[in-house]
Fold Pyrroloquinoline quinone (Coenzyme PQQ) biosynthesis protein C.
Amino acid sequence: MLMAKEQFKHEMRDMLNKHLTLANPLFRHLMDANNPNPELLKFTTLQGYQLTKHFLTYIEYIYFYCPIEKHKRILLHNMYEEETGALSRTKNHVELLHDFIRALGISDAERDAATPLPATQQLIDYRMHACQNPELYHIAAAAVLIASEGQNLETLGEEARHSILGRIYQLKEEDLLFFSVHQKEDVGHVKQGLALVTDLCITEEMQQQALAAIERTCQYFYAMYQGIYEHLKLNELDLEPIQ
């Protein structure tokens, strides 16, 4: 049965909230204030950078194929901010991440030489495939505007992920602008995504496909972190008996 719009929005938000990537054991190592691991933070950041490099392309496709004019205007603002940073009075969002990467001591050459692990590539490809296919537009919107934008809203207690990392690794506020800007903006972006997908999904099948896209995207984010965790053999370290 086709859900009423408000119920559908509620179901989509619930789907997002029940898949918390901060529960991945990787973050236990990243956020261990008693044993900071700068090299782990660098490696994880370079995997995250693989995602950010493609994000504007996702938004461009979603804007281009958007069939609803009122939502298309909102997407234009989103795209403009990603490209220029003008609305947040910062700069291009990829450049903001470049600043964070440099603050970690990673050279531009090292940054550009990094490649995605298989699970990272899986997440990139899943969203790109949906974005490039107009018949999957509602799936692309759910995956990018809800599940992906929603990743920056996770907190541990009342503290945002980037605030914790900044404190542990002694990073300055300006180093963290990529994350603080996104945390603020993505509250609105997720709301906009929920509104767009709600208007797009006019059948029960489309609603279920959108919910599945949110769940699958969140699972792929978790798998990306799990891929880092296992690639660096942290899972083996966690299995070692305490002496």
About this structure: The domain at 5-238 is CATH 1.20.910.10 (Heme Oxygenase; Chain A).
